[in-house]
Amino acid sequence: MTRRHPDPWRDADAQTNLEQMAAGLESRGRTPAQARLRRRFLRFIPVKAGDRVLEVGCGTGVVVRDLVTLVGRGGAVVGVDSSRLLLDRARRLCREAASRARVALRVGDGARLPFAASRFDSALAITVILHVADPLRVVREMARVTRSGGHVGVQDQDFGVVAVTHPDRELTDRIMHGVAAHIYAEPHSGRRLPGLLRSVGLEGVRLLTDVYQDTTLEPWTKTFLERRAERAVGFGIVNERTAARWLDGFTELVAQGAFVLTLNYYGAVGTKPN
Ligand SMILES: C[S@@+](CC[C@H](N)C(=O)[O-])C[C@H]1O[C@@H](n2cnc3c(N)ncnc32)[C@H](O)[C@@H]1O
Fold first, then answer.
1. Which of these, 82, 77, 47, lies nearest to 62 by C-alpha position?
2. 83 CB under 6 A from ligand 1?
3. pLDDT of residue 166
4. Domain 8-271's class?
5. What is the pTM of this model?
């Protein structure tokens, strides 16, 4: 029997809660502080009117819809994802956007992109590199399909830099660090992105560090913490009672107006040399 990888994004189509995962992407996409930091990164690259842009790991198409607004009628947006089921949702959710620019959504692996060299002005991957088996190979592929002078941009959270208020600090650290260590090969993926881009020969690498800040327990943050609690039980880090007590701790802080969660996002951009 093959053991399933603990990171559900490695093989979304094999998950029993795919509907919940897709809803989570959309919920994150709608969260104002998330939308701001995502769009700030797209401007930082920068994506311009008329560009041909590739997004690797497009999921339900949250970023594809932002990209359509930026590239406009003269531009084109191509989304690739290894999940056929998420792409089905992306096709539905991007229908309106596809009337405002050329949009193509394709099943494909970021480590073997189904495109000829130098086809795109920019190739992006947003909260994807953290999840892939071979980040170097994916970034090398992104550089291959980008034209000389074009940009490769990658943005990831960094699970070494989650700050959250809770009455039990030791328990919070045990759950947050423990779960991240079980799921990700490199929980500090975000801070390593500039080095990753340089290692595939990209030039003029720049970094934009941004912070997701939540003081009200947004629906996406709530789901994120609930999922961490559930996974902590699954990995044997805590029992169900402790996980429930941990979640109650956040609810109390929200009621007191004392809840804070911040999560660092690192966005790196490099230029393909001639
Ligand atoms: C956390 S989601 C991010 C989706 C989207 N970029 C966003 O920000 O809403 C990660 C996505 O990467 C996709 N993915 C994971 N490994 C992949 C690979 N090797 N090639 C292409 N897509 C991959 C997953 O199926 C999933 O849709």
1. 77
2. yes
3. 97
4. alpha beta
5. 0.97
